[in-house]
Each structure stands twice: as structure tokens, then as C-alpha cells.
Amino acid sequence: MQAIEFDTYISQNRIQIPMDLNYLNNIKAKVSIQIEDKLPQGNFDKRSLLDAFNKAKKVGAFRNIENSVSWQQDIRDEWE
Q1: Which of 40, 60, 61, 69 is deepest in the core (most CB within 10 A)?
Q2: Which of 37, 36, 33 is nearest to 5 (CA)?
Q3: How many CB atoms are located within 10 Å of the residue 67 CB?
Q4: Residue 16: count of CB within 10 angstroms of its CB
């Protein structure tokens, strides 16, 4: 058995194998995952975010938005 070690990120439940290891295609492998001690945390507090949305709703911040999808598309067009 041969051991190969590399660092990568797990994204959408997938592990990207580095290009220089492309010769490993279509072979059986035993995988062991070692996770760093600190897991990434979200940069927000869910409760605070929900409270902010509820406050904005109470003061009518969204009252002029009839279609939220088209509103988002319109404001994103300003960036392009």
C-alpha cells in the first residue's frame, strides 16, 4: 500500500485531488480524513440576522418590493 498526503478543502461533499496526482484515476483507495482543530465558523449570528430582518420588515423596508427575484436581478445589474 502506498500513502499519499496533500491538503485540500472539502466542498459540496467532494474532495479535489491535485492535478499532479491524476494518475490515481479509477483506482480503489482507502481514505482517512484529518480535520484541522478549528472548523470554519459562519461570519454571522443567525439569531441576530433574523432579528434584523424582522425589524426591517416592521418598519416597511421591503414594502416596495413586489417580486424579490426581479428586485435582486435589478440591483445586481448595477454591479456589472
Answers
A1: 61
A2: 33
A3: 9
A4: 10
Distance (Å, whole) CA 38 – CA 32: 18
Where do the structural domains in the chain lie, given as residue ranges?
46-77
Q: Which residue has the cell 440576522?
A: 49
Q: Per residue in 50-78, pLDDT tens?
A: 999 899 989 988 888 899 899 888 888 86
- In sequence order, the 6+-apart residues with CB closer than 8 A to the CB of 65 are 71
Residue 18 · residue 8 · CB < 8 Å = yes
DSSP structural state of residue 12:
T
Q: How many residues does the chain have?
A: 80
- CA quadruple 53, 57, 63, 67: dihedral sign: positive
CB 45 within 8 A of CB 28: no
2-20 residue pLDDT tens: 899 998 888 888 988 888 9
